[in-house]
């Protein structure tokens, strides 16, 4: 007797748990591999899964087996020119002898491959990439901004406003009450009814018919009393739908990317800035349900633009950083109320600024921007000397150590470490 | 015989067609006296096949990171096109579960049904090793038990503790089998009584072994080793005697031990098992063709798959990866049939007992009573040695050169046959390591002995394995490599001894 079963629709994820265990066990190695690959890869690929290669030695499960050496005989197929007694040089490892079954089956897998390569998904990749990073003051903000409420149905109540009246429940309660309260009168009534039926069975005569009329009168009287005594619907019966308001933490974030596009910013510098912004976007997006991005570019004048224009359009001219900061402050005030959004500002620049402008920048930051946002990150992409903007910002960093961070980036390999440092969790810094 | 019309002419399979093919193959198999467990044929897709690969072919298994590793490895290689997946996996269970891939053509499904559901299945049911060591009707239940038990342990004692335990057990898995002592067949009453006794016994036994009250013993008794005779089943010894393990840890050792024992016959019968299955898919499908149930096109496609499965690349080919067990097994089975049906003078000299005997009875006898090593030692014929052009190479690390010690000629047949048989002898492949002594009255250290064979040393993995052993035993571990003359060649210790204490 044979059975044929179609299993194709069964779950395919049987190995998921084991896979997770493996990833957990080799977390350190995988993280190192992720960081290595991040340094090399173009940023557009970051948001995808990746092939991860770790040392195979680390993952081997040891067991007792024979090593090389000693004397052993192995049988091979396909003899061509050998005859008994021939001797020849031992070939290098691998080739004919390395994979002979004389070594035991397990060593076959070890031959020739020192690296263990496997694929991890995008989510896993990002998890490894962002591990240890923590959004600054995320928790604080979430608690602070619990101004949004959602209403949830929560059972029934007996006191509420009329529009929430639940008809079926109310009538059901009334019916139950009527049954319960009509008990005592009912006994008498049934008794009277019984004797009435008994009389009606008997042959009709004078006394009987009078009795019947009497009984009928009594019954109807009793019924009347009952009706008066037990109301059809009492206020006591009314049931209302109950709703509760549940506070919902705000899970919206906005990232405002500010970049200098003046003549001194070459395409390479912009590319570096782009990597930084995308990294920031990926990072923040993972922590909020909804993340918006605003792009502000500036030379002597700031404008809000779309992503394409932000990164790729060519502009030239001088540099006035304060123009961009002013626009940033305006946008936040107008569009992103503090109680609904977690605001992050990231500024990338080559450090160039018009001489007297840096002071204005500082004032803007201190007075209008830093008090209402979560975090301001400034990256200066230059390999040369720092200019006045850097120095002014240094002062701000001292005043607003929790909200303001700045770092210098020299090449693409720096981006990720700098990013990590900017967003390194506060707890780590303290310890 | 009257020719019938073919069952199907299309490459696509359907469930109805599989059923019809299965019924026909089953009918023919019964005519050839193939005795099988009931078949449970399951159609799966490639991802499920990879899952099955990862959990050592079993339909369910406890969780462990190493299975995750295997899964990642398989899926990476498969997706990169570096390897194909097997057409089927078959499990030694009752009913016998066989997985068929949905990608297979109708011809492949028929081939696989003949190969797995009748070939392997009858081998599982008939071969003495499987009959002695495995209980096909209980394995699925045992796997369920093991999975649940280990999951419960993870809940109670933490995933990490259980994982460490499994890591250690897995590293000794090959040494967790009884090779020679066969378990007596128990009646159900004896079985249940034994289960109850076991728990009590273990605890009592350990307590007496480690009792702290010193017992005055006569001086000749003091020198006796514990265990009295060396123990080859390391996991068994640890399960029963390790002083510090908790009951759940002992049970985990037992689970790993049972699994090792369950797979032990498969390791020893790869050539026979595959040879037998290939022999029968070849025979059964040819019979179908003779009866007109399959078309010529079907047979062409079948023969193409069949020949690629049993292809043996020569030793100097880049595709050479050891002797192909399918080739060796299939050819030996076909050869036995030939010796029965058309024996030559040479066959009569070499195989007087089977030459000219009824072939069907003979192949059944062979299937039932041998394992790879004895099968080759007994039935590898000079003719097949010539056909495969087998030759032996002696590799002695003391000498700078390799030596051809025997080839496929009159003087070499016996030598080649012997060498090849040894190659499939697990006792020869795996180092011979046994528990030699426990310092019962001293530091409780455990001494193992590696009995060196043909001067072959142990691999570099020894310290890591000893570490695992130490994890289980809880006290110092010593391993001595000993020659046949009793001379200690080399010692290993965990934890490492400091030089001054040596």
Class based on secondary structure composition and strand pairing of chain B = alpha/beta
Q: What is the CATH domain class of the largest domain in chain A?
A: Alpha Beta
Mean pLDDT of chain B: 88
Report how far apart the termini of chain B are.
81 Å
Query: What is the oligomer described by this structure?
Result: heterodimer
* Radius of gyration of chain A over all CA atoms, rounded: 41 Å
DSSP, total strands of chain B: 9
Please tell me the overall pLDDT of chain A.
77
**Strands across the major sheet of chain A, in which order?**
10-9-8-11-12-13
> What is the helix fraction of residues of chain B, given as a range?
40-55%
Number of strands of chain A: 13
How large a portion of the residues of chain A is in β-strands, by DSSP E? 15-25%
Main beta sheet strand tally, sense and closure of chain B: 4 strands, mixed
Strand content of chain B: 5-15%
Q: Ends of chain A: how far apart?
A: 69 Å
Q: What class do helices, strands and sheet pairing of chain A give?
A: alpha/beta
**CATH second-level architecture of the largest domain in chain A:** 3-Layer(aba) Sandwich
CATH superfamily of the largest domain in chain A: von Willebrand factor, type A domain
Q: Biggest interface and its residues per chain?
A: A-B, 65 and 102 residues
User: How would the global form of chain A be characterised?
Assistant: flat
